[in-house]
Design a protein that fits this description.
Helices cover 17% and strands 34% of the residues. The chain has 137 residues and is an alpha+beta fold. The mean pLDDT is 84. This is SHSP domain-containing protein.
């Protein structure tokens, strides 16, 4: 294309922008419907236990509720936003604040009575002892 001709946006660019607007409106709709957020987690296993590690920076132990049944772990709580700086305005807020919840299906039966949890350095560690008959030999 000669350099002296004006460039017009392609129809493809317009389509991409329209799709982005559609996805943005869908995301806002979902966030209004489900105001909780889901922290990142890992599920590990050794011979005697399952371990669930959930990233909860800035959340004290007393703000976390852990419950379990034979095949399920349920974690929920609240992460408070930091105190605002007087006179400052936010340009970006990428952290998640407010209510959070994770439900984890455990692949083998556990003993819910012996489940323990601990928050240290922003990481919740939940230890889920396996039922005796399901331990790896």
């Amino acid at each position: 294309m000669p350099a002296d001709l004006p460039r017009r946006p392609s129809r493809f660019v317009a389509l991409v922008e329209e799709m982005q607007l559609m996805f943005d409106s869908f995301q806002v709709s979902v966030e209004k419907r489900w105001p909780t957020w889901r922290p990142s987690m890992d599920l590990l296993e050794d011979e005697e236990n399952f371990f669930v590690l959930i990233e909860l920076p800035g959340v004290p132990q007393e703000k976390v509720e852990v419950s379990s049944s034979e095949y399920r772990l349920h974690v929920r709580g609240v992460r408070q936003p930091p105190e605002p700086h007087i006179g400052a305005c936010h340009h970006y807020v990428e952290g998640h604040y407010g209510h959070f919840e994770r439900v984890v299906m455990i692949p083998a039966p556990i003993d819910p009575v012996r489940v323990t949890s601990d928050v240290k350095d922003g990481l919740l560690t939940v230890t889920l002892p396996k039922k005796q008959e399901n331990r790896i030999a």
